[in-house]
């Protein structure tokens, strides 16, 4: 910095010398020369500052006295009026230089304030946008160090007792100061070492503390950072609580919908079992063939009931965890027929199975894929009139295997077709008429995606088709 001041002072002296040489060589009158000196001093002051203007004004005063005020060639002045003119010139030059330097300083301060405001605004935007890939407190302190170009920053969260650090300077020596700042709400600073510790308050209560090391900051900026940090931490806590409430709400909704769905599913097989057992008791002398038929009905319905329970348990487990498909080479046709078997009584006379050629063995998780197909069959039975056909078409091509399940229900409105795979979504038009959980299609879609495939729907009044597309090769990212 001093080198720059010295260089600019030399340039100011050279400017005064140039004006002196021009005015002396052209025999310009003293008044005009004085104005020329004044202009040089003003230009130097406005361009560089007070120190350079002071050098220029003193040199201009000496040159004006020596070359232009009688007796010329000496530093003495004969006429008292010239003394007044000389000191007036010097005072004007110095005052103008000082004012110019002060104006430049204020302009620089205004720029620094503007930069601080812009940084605070950027920091506030970062707090509002947040981050999902790391703890919010860690994200906040990292963005603080980046935005304000700090050597290091440390945030101590008083509620969790954790430290979050960013930057090249670890500031581990300030950990005790940070804890004390949270306990007592105090702040510390060491300008010589360029670090500060400030309490982060929510209202009057300290909830955290912040240490920063880097270029000096005004107290107002530090307080602004502290206030924004408090807002960010409280917002993150509110978001966490909101997420916990939402998880609890969805868990309760899942429990309620599963209970309702299972209660409805249990009614039909239990009614059939009860009817068969009652018939056996009422007809003790019935022919053995009739008894066997009744026992067969009861056995089939008990198996159906067991399958409903297992599927409900699988749905509950899959809805609360990530789905990982354990793939192994499988016969798609056989897996599909296993999925159909529990619906044998309901599909009797309704199912049209179309398979033009043997399907290739592909990598599947038989248990999960069976569950997905059962959800689609159950959906087709629920939403199509009794007695109407349910068609299942299977075919293969170069890209993979496709299963298409079609029913003749009233159809899904176009505005709702993109939502039917959402958890718990059920169309308002059928919610009260047809029981269900709103989970079956969501689970089926997740299972198919876990296999690297796609589940799509094409529906209009009188026809709804669900299409499963499975790749031939192993899906990426599954187990």
- Numbering strands along the chain, what is their spatial order in the largest sheet? 2-1-5-4-3
DSSP strand count: 12
CATH architecture call of the largest domain: 2-Layer Sandwich
- Mean pLDDT level: 78
- State the fourth-level CATH superfamily of the largest domain: Histidine kinase-like ATPase, C-terminal domain
- The CATH class assignment of the largest domain is Alpha Beta
Identify low-pLDDT runs: 474-479
How would you describe this protein?
The chain has helices at 2-25, 30-47, 50-68, 80-129, 136-147, 175-184, 219-282, 288-319, 332-340, 344-347, 366-382, 440-450, and strands spanning 152-157, 162-167, 188-190, 195-202, 205-213, 328-331, 351-355, 361-364, 390-396, 400-407, 454-460, 463-471. It has 4 domains: 2-111, no CATH class; 133-217, 2-Layer Sandwich (Beta-Lactamase), CATH 3.30.450; 244-317, Helix Hairpins (Orthogonal Bundle); 322-471, Histidine kinase-like ATPase, C-terminal domain (Heat Shock Protein 90), CATH 3.30.565.10. With 479 residues, it is of the alpha+beta class. Mean pLDDT is 78; it is low at 474-479. A 5-stranded antiparallel beta sheet has the order 2-1-5-4-3, with helices on both faces. Strands 7-9-10-12-11 form a 5-stranded mixed beta sheet. α2 packs parallel to α4 (80-129) and α11 (366-382) packs antiparallel against α12 (440-450). A hairpin with a 2-residue loop joins β4 and β5. Helices cover 56% and strands 16% of the residues. It is elongated and about 155 Å long.
């Amino acid at each position: 910095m001093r080198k720059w001041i010295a260089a600019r002072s030399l340039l100011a002296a050279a400017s005064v010398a140039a004006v002196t040489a021009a005015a002396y060589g052209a025999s310009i009158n003293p008044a005009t020369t004085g104005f020329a000196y004044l202009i040089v001093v003003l230009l130097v002051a406005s361009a560089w500052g007070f120190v350079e203007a002071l050098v220029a004004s003193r040199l201009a005063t000496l040159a004006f006295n020596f070359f232009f005020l009688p007796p010329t060639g000496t530093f003495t002045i004969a006429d008292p009026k010239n003394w007044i003119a000389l000191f007036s010139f010097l005072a004007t030059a110095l005052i103008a230089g000082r004012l110019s330097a002060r104006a430049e300083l204020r302009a620089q301060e205004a720029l620094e304030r503007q930069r601080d405001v812009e940084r605070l605004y950027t920091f506030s935007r970062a707090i509002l946008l947040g981050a999902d890939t790391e703890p919010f407190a860690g994200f906040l302190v990292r963005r603080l160090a980046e935005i304000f170009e700090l050597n290091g920053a440390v945030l101590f969260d008083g509620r969790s007792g954790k430290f979050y650090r960013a930057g090249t300077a670890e500031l581990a020596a300030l950990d005790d100061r940070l804890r004390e700042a949270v306990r007592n709400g105090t702040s510390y600073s060491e300008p010589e070492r360029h670090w500060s510790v400030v309490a982060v308050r929510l209202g009057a209560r300290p909830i955290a503390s912040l240490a920063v090391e880097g270029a000096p900051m005004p107290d107002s900026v530090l307080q602004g950072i502290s206030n924004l940090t408090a807002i960010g931490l409280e917002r993150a806590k509110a978001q966490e609580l909101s997420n916990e409430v939402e998880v609890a709400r969805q868990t309760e909704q899942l429990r309620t919908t599963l209970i309702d769905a299972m209660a409805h599913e249990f009614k039909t097989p239990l009614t059939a079992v009860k009817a068969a057992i009652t018939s056996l008791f009422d007809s003790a002398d019935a022919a053995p063939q009739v008894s066997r038929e009744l026992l067969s009905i009861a056995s089939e319905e008990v198996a159906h009931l067991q399958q409903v329970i297992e599927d409900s348990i699988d749905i509950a487990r899959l809805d609360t965890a990530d789905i990982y498909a354990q793939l192994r080479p499988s016969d798609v046709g056989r897996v599909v027929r296993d999925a159909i078997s529990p619906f044998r009584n309901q599909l009797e006379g309704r199912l049209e199975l179309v398979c033009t050629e043997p399907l290739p063995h592909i990598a599947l998780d038989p248990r999960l894929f069976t569950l997905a197909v059962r959800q689609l069959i159950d959906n087709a039975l629920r939403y199509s009139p009794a007695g109407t056909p349910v068609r299942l078409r299977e075919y293969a091509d170069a890209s993979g295997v496709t299963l298409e399940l079609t029913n003749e229900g009233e159809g899904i409105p176009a505005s709702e077709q993109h939502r039917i795979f959402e958890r718990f979504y059920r169309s308002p038009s059928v919610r009260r008429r047809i029981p269900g959980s709103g989970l079956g299609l969501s689970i089926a879609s997740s299972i198919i995606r876990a296999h690297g495939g796609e589940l799509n729907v094409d529906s209009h009044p009188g026809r709804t088709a669900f299409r499963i597309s499975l790749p031939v090769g192993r899906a990426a990212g599954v187990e």
